[in-house]
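Quick one: examine this chain and its backbone structure tokens and tell me how the chain folds. Here goes:
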Amino acid sequence: MSSDILEICSGKFVDEENELTLEQICEICRIDSKSIIEMVDEGIFEPEGDENSSWRFSYSCVETVRIVTRMQKDLRINLPGAALVLQLLEQMK
């Protein structure tokens, strides 16, 4: 008898053409809205709209959120430090 390992993956299809709401970006990135609001306050990205309830994020913000959360987790960089790293990386492009 062989022991096969079955890996189950799940995901969601996201329309990259449309913008994401605060709730959607939180769900996709598996992060709370407070963290997203802190990133916006730090200037890491700027959503469209005036208030949290009407914010719209481009799909590129998903990758930015993932990079920032990884820097915070793996390198223990605080949010202002992560913002600086992103700015320096952008200048290098």
About this structure: The mean pLDDT is 90. The chain is about 50% helix and 0% strand. The chain has one domain: 22-92.
